[in-house]
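User: What would this chain look like folded?
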Amino acid sequence: MEQPTASFRVREQKLAMSPLDHLMKQLAKLPGLGPRSARRVVLHLLKRREAVFLPLIDSMTRALRDVKECSACGNLGGTDPCEICSDPGRDRSLICVVEDVADLWALERSNAYRGLYHVLGGTLSALEGIRPADLHIEGLVNRIKSNQINEVILALNATVEGQATAHYVAEHVASMGVSVSKLAHGLPVGGELDYLDDGTLTAALKARRKAG
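Assistant: Here's the prediction, encoded as structure tokens.
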């Protein structure tokens, strides 16, 4: 008798998984949630189907359909260009370079910065094989060439990878006649922007210094 293949057994296990188990497994993949937290979330959703679960499904469906990536800066929002790039009140001579959209949102929460942003989409990493060509560095260069940019602020995380990326970007754009600065005190070594409080971010922005 022919034995079932490994792929067949995997499919069989997936088919046997209950809707509850499947939902908990998917939620457990989210940042900050493990199996126990996922179980609590699922129970809460099922107990409040009308008040919480159905509105959540509707919001997630709308976000999946309507949220766009800004073709200028890489931010996420309901329009392209995003609300920040379209705001006539922003200082268009400043570009703040961040690693990820979460860092952009963190800086916006501080209300200490009124310029534009540029999301690199990660940091250089030899171990993970992330090269300069994998980041949105050329997009930053093109924006500097096409606009009257006076200063580029490097607001990258204070990690080894973040600082290596900041150094690379600084060398790449310094020859273009723009001032390059980076966040100063207030950022702990190894810290990530999305986890810092608004006061720390404000102090770091105000005390930025020339990169190099």
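The domain at 6-66 is CATH 1.10.8.420 (Helicase, Ruva Protein; domain 3). If you want, I can go into more detail on any region.
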